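Hello, quick one for you while I still have it in my head. My current little project is about how a certain protein chain folds up. You're getting the sequence in one-letter code plus the fold written as tokens. Would you mind checking whether the tokens look sensible for this chain? Here's the protein in full, and shout if anything looks odd to you:
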Amino acid sequence: MSAKSLDHVEPYFRGLRHEMLPFVPDSISTALDVGCGAGGFGAMIKDKTSAEVWGIEINQEVGEEAKARLDKVMLGDAIEAMRSISNKRFDAIIFNDVLEHIAWPDEALRVAATLLSDSGVVVASIPNIRYFRALKQILIRRDFPWEDSGVFDRTHLRFFTEKSIVRLFESSGFRIERIEGINAAVGTKLSIALFLTFGLFRDARYLQYAVVASPIQTS
């Protein structure tokens, strides 16, 4: 089934995340998409690399949809599902806007490290709490709203900046290979504001950060 055949799936789980595909190495032969939703992104990985792609999804109904697109889908809690995997290693483990939904994202990364191949990497996107619209809510409107999606998603348990993303990965035993702001806001007023603050809020342009990280070998 094509990655495009997702119109009937709840929008929250339908996003294909095209902007994250370039961060997935072309050379992988196996991948694990944690929080795979309806399987759209994993299907794109298969189209790009011909890799075997597994998924983990906590929403059972959506996970059943993903089974038609991915090679194997496990239903349930991300950390528990990863711990149940044996005799399988992955060249890439993907967390697209997932780690902020986990109470202990550092533990999720440590478990993921045990499932990576020798050259395997974690690929993740993480919302930026310093995104300018979030700062506007907090600093100007003096509010911290709960919303159905986005930076203020009501199911978020953790909140990150670029600096704390780096700290999360490094404290979990990873080396950051690449980190870039993605889904940048554009506009003349925003550009002027960023210029006038001498780069202090340069990160406020980005809705999320994309990360590629590899575990630090301790042997």
In short: The first strand starts at residue 30 and ends at 34. The beta strands are 30-34, 52-57, 72-75, 90-96, 116-127, 174-184, 206-215.
